[in-house]
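BUG-520 | component: ligand-complex export | severity: low

The export step for iron/sulfur cluster jobs runs without errors, but we want the raw record kept on the ticket for reference. Input record follows.
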Amino acid sequence: MIEKTGVPSLEQVKQEFPDKVVLKKPKAIIECYKEIPCNPCHTSCPFDAIFIPEDINVRPKIDFDKCTGCGICVYNCPGLAIMVTQIKEGKILMKIPYEFTPLPKVDQTVNVVNRAGEKISEGIVRKVQLSEKQNKTALIHIELDEKYAYEAITIEVLHGS
Amino acid sequence: MRRVEVAIIGSGPAGLAAAKPLLDAGAKVLMIDRSDMLGGQLTKQTHMFFGSEKQHASKRGIDILKLMVDEIQYHENLTVLTETTVVGLYQDRVISCVKHDEYFKIQADYILVASGASEKSLPFENNDLPGVYAAGAVQTLMNVYGVKPGERVLMIGSGNIGLIVSYQLMQAGVEVPMLLEAADTIGGYLVHASKIRRLGVDIRTNMSVKRAIGKASVEAAEIWRLDKHWQGIPGTEEIVPCDTICLSVGLAPLTELLQQAGADIKYVRELGGNVPIINKKYQTSLENVYTCGDVAGIEEASSAMISGEIAGLEIARSAGYKIDNIDQHISRLHDDLTNLRNGPHGEKIRIGLEKVGVK
Ligand SMILES: Cc1cc2nc3c(=O)[nH]c(=O)nc-3n(C[C@H](O)[C@H](O)[C@H](O)COP(=O)(O)OP(=O)(O)OC[C@H]3O[C@@H](n4cnc5c(N)ncnc54)[C@H](O)[C@@H]3O)c2cc1C
Ligand code: SF4
Ligand code: SF4
């Protein structure tokens, strides 16, 4: 139970995903399961795809038609509760927020973990984005097998050698 | 004795936010802090903040601090006294200060107590062993001085502070195998909990530390399950190897100065302990003595900034400064506060404020 462990159930996770057909294009998946006074996802999205009303405690609501998968909300969310996911030719391509050093390198193989922190698969780093405006939260693009779409959440922290 | 117009005790987000409207209005402000730098808790917050954009959400605490300090620091009417501890506050608005070994008194027309909060401790066997730290101390070590407190940390407490400090420890390359929470459920925001859980922190509710184990310093912790009344259940003990036990079990408002001056104080559990009785202007029961931020009840930097701004504006008004549209401005700030406290996480605060008579 998420209130006890920090791990959402598979049903909870699936509810935040659109239909798989929609994921042919990259879309933001928001896992912000409880009302908190917070709204940068809403204010940072340049396409008005995420909505939070005047009462900022209301949970964010996404309009997948408007979301372009740009990833701006991903590095603006202080809860690191958003990722962008796309399904393409049997693979998923995720953009995840990452705030550790060293950063992984492009083409590097990394361990992908689930929401309980357990390793589920290996993935390949396709891109590492860290511009000035990202304010120290990097976006890592990871590719892995489609079957992990609802499980994969981040990568194991890399340690400096 | 030195005389000042407005003395602000504490330079955290609350004190800084109060100084701005006062300086803008033309008041002369003396800001006093016992630390060697301005900013209070913000000096150690390297993570992105929550809240709404108006209170700089999504920026990092240390960057918010820079913005706030930049806004006021070169103002000709501002005097700053750092490394200065206020040790006494008297009814006639005289404050006594200690800077290094020097002792002096200041008379102020208005006083704003923005001294924040102190961390609570937890009684358990060997809790005085080196390696048992409060979360604030751990944060200061890591984020201000760049020193790791240890290599393997057992975290106690699942409020936002425990969750965030766990994350920051991992960013510093420290292992955090486990986090214990005495209550049934995680206290802080679930997004923070999920963020560390996916990095491998085993979050366990209904559990606490029984004793620290080690000769010269912590080598392990004995932990156990708690019953409904938060009493340890014999037979459920486990040993967790670690070199640090980090306590993040709550904050208590620093109301000693106000108590000493004879302000009306009430114990309100929901606000963290003893808090001053205040009105909507953040005025205490003492004439021309105001308060704001965590002293008035443990909350957040976002609300500390708003309450500070309200207190600053109210002092400026009381001191006779004309400020355009002040009523609208203050009522907007009150709306912002209400908005922040609207959700389930604001419930405690709402109950607490009702108990002190402000809504
Ligand atoms: C780990 C952690 C994470 C947090 N994360 C968030 C977050 O994401 N979002 C958020 O909104 N809030 C967050 N907070 C809460 C926030 O930091 C506090 O609520 C806020 O700093 C309170 O502001 P303040 O100005 O009242 O007190 P403080 O920031 O505590 O400042 C008080 C100042 O007063 C000084 N002082 C105290 N006594 C004296 C004295 N006798 N003489 C002289 N000076 C004195 C102190 O040195 C200090 O500088 C976090 C807090 C912690 C500890
Ligand atoms: S990914 Fe881009 S378009 Fe989609 S919700 Fe986030 S910021 Fe908006
Ligand atoms: S920014 Fe992140 S944590 Fe804040 S409301 Fe949006 S999704 Fe939730």
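Assignee comment: Attached the raw record above. The pocket of iron/sulfur cluster (ligand 3) is lined by residues A 30, 32, 38-41, 60, 77-79, 81-82; B 191 (CB under 6 Å).
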